[in-house]
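From the shared-data thread, chain only:
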Amino acid sequence: MIRIFRHYISSAYLWLVIIEFGVFFAAMYFGSSVRFLSAESWYTEQDIVVASAVFSLVLTLTCSGLGLYRRTLSWEDYDLLSRAFVSFLLTIFVIVSIYYFLPTFLIGRSVLLMPLPLLFLA
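Structure, as C-alpha coordinates:
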Protein backbone atom coordinates (compact mmCIF):
# COMPACT_ATOMS: atom_id res chain seq x y z
CA MET A 1 0.00 0.00 0.00
CA ILE A 2 1.21 3.44 -0.97
CA ARG A 3 -0.04 6.56 0.75
CA ILE A 4 -0.94 9.41 -1.63
CA PHE A 5 -2.76 12.50 -0.36
CA ARG A 6 -3.69 10.69 2.90
CA HIS A 7 -5.27 7.81 0.98
CA TYR A 8 -3.88 4.32 0.82
CA ILE A 9 -3.65 2.97 -2.71
CA SER A 10 -2.69 -0.57 -3.55
CA SER A 11 0.51 -0.73 -5.55
CA ALA A 12 -1.19 -3.15 -7.96
CA TYR A 13 -3.87 -0.58 -8.77
CA LEU A 14 -1.28 2.16 -9.05
CA TRP A 15 0.62 0.06 -11.59
CA LEU A 16 -2.66 -0.62 -13.41
CA VAL A 17 -3.35 3.11 -13.70
CA ILE A 18 0.20 3.78 -14.92
CA ILE A 19 0.06 0.98 -17.51
CA GLU A 20 -3.37 2.02 -18.74
CA PHE A 21 -2.17 5.63 -19.04
CA GLY A 22 0.62 4.33 -21.26
CA VAL A 23 -1.81 2.25 -23.32
CA PHE A 24 -4.15 5.23 -23.75
CA PHE A 25 -1.20 7.42 -24.76
CA ALA A 26 0.06 4.85 -27.26
CA ALA A 27 -3.42 4.36 -28.74
CA MET A 28 -3.85 8.07 -29.36
CA TYR A 29 -0.32 8.44 -30.71
CA PHE A 30 -0.56 5.46 -33.06
CA GLY A 31 -4.16 6.32 -33.93
CA SER A 32 -2.98 9.65 -35.26
CA SER A 33 -0.24 7.84 -37.15
CA VAL A 34 -2.82 5.51 -38.72
CA ARG A 35 -4.97 8.49 -39.65
CA PHE A 36 -2.11 10.05 -41.61
CA LEU A 37 -0.84 6.94 -43.41
CA SER A 38 -2.06 8.08 -46.81
CA ALA A 39 -1.91 11.84 -46.29
CA GLU A 40 0.66 14.21 -44.91
CA SER A 41 0.12 15.27 -41.30
CA TRP A 42 -0.55 18.91 -40.51
CA TYR A 43 0.42 18.26 -36.88
CA THR A 44 3.90 18.56 -35.52
CA GLU A 45 5.32 15.81 -33.33
CA GLN A 46 4.86 18.03 -30.28
CA ASP A 47 1.16 18.58 -31.10
CA ILE A 48 0.56 14.85 -31.29
CA VAL A 49 2.40 14.19 -28.01
CA VAL A 50 0.46 16.94 -26.19
CA ALA A 51 -2.84 15.70 -27.62
CA SER A 52 -1.98 12.13 -26.60
CA ALA A 53 -1.07 13.24 -23.08
CA VAL A 54 -4.28 15.24 -22.66
CA PHE A 55 -6.36 12.37 -24.05
CA SER A 56 -4.77 9.75 -21.80
CA LEU A 57 -4.97 11.96 -18.70
CA VAL A 58 -8.66 12.72 -19.23
CA LEU A 59 -9.49 9.10 -20.00
CA THR A 60 -7.60 7.86 -16.94
CA LEU A 61 -9.37 10.38 -14.71
CA THR A 62 -12.82 9.52 -16.09
CA CYS A 63 -12.16 5.80 -15.66
CA SER A 64 -11.09 6.46 -12.10
CA GLY A 65 -14.07 8.70 -11.47
CA LEU A 66 -16.49 6.03 -12.65
CA GLY A 67 -15.01 3.46 -10.31
CA LEU A 68 -13.13 1.24 -12.72
CA TYR A 69 -10.14 1.11 -10.35
CA ARG A 70 -12.00 0.05 -7.18
CA ARG A 71 -11.01 -2.88 -5.02
CA THR A 72 -14.52 -3.72 -3.89
CA LEU A 73 -16.31 -4.74 -7.07
CA SER A 74 -19.04 -7.26 -6.35
CA TRP A 75 -20.85 -9.27 -9.02
CA GLU A 76 -23.85 -6.94 -8.88
CA ASP A 77 -21.47 -4.04 -9.42
CA TYR A 78 -19.49 -5.66 -12.17
CA ASP A 79 -20.82 -3.91 -15.26
CA LEU A 80 -17.42 -2.87 -16.56
CA LEU A 81 -18.43 -2.69 -20.21
CA SER A 82 -21.12 -0.09 -19.58
CA ARG A 83 -18.80 1.87 -17.28
CA ALA A 84 -16.06 1.84 -19.91
CA PHE A 85 -18.53 3.02 -22.57
CA VAL A 86 -19.75 5.89 -20.37
CA SER A 87 -16.13 6.72 -19.58
CA PHE A 88 -15.33 7.01 -23.29
CA LEU A 89 -18.37 9.24 -23.85
CA LEU A 90 -17.39 11.51 -20.96
CA THR A 91 -13.84 11.62 -22.26
CA ILE A 92 -15.00 12.78 -25.68
CA PHE A 93 -17.18 15.46 -24.07
CA VAL A 94 -14.38 16.73 -21.81
CA ILE A 95 -11.77 16.71 -24.57
CA VAL A 96 -14.02 18.57 -26.99
CA SER A 97 -14.65 21.11 -24.21
CA ILE A 98 -10.92 21.47 -23.56
CA TYR A 99 -10.18 22.01 -27.24
CA TYR A 100 -13.07 24.46 -27.52
CA PHE A 101 -12.00 26.61 -24.57
CA LEU A 102 -8.25 26.31 -25.27
CA PRO A 103 -7.93 26.67 -29.05
CA THR A 104 -4.13 26.50 -28.91
CA PHE A 105 -4.52 22.75 -28.58
CA LEU A 106 -5.46 21.57 -32.04
CA ILE A 107 -6.83 18.16 -32.86
CA GLY A 108 -9.06 16.98 -35.65
CA ARG A 109 -12.19 14.90 -35.23
CA SER A 110 -10.73 12.05 -37.22
CA VAL A 111 -7.63 11.94 -35.02
CA LEU A 112 -9.79 12.01 -31.88
CA LEU A 113 -12.07 9.22 -33.08
CA MET A 114 -9.27 6.97 -34.39
CA PRO A 115 -8.03 5.54 -31.04
CA LEU A 116 -11.45 4.92 -29.47
CA PRO A 117 -12.29 1.67 -31.32
CA LEU A 118 -8.76 0.50 -30.62
CA LEU A 119 -9.13 1.18 -26.90
CA PHE A 120 -12.62 -0.24 -26.62
CA LEU A 121 -11.41 -3.53 -28.07
CA ALA A 122 -8.35 -3.57 -25.84
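The longest helix spans residues 11-35.
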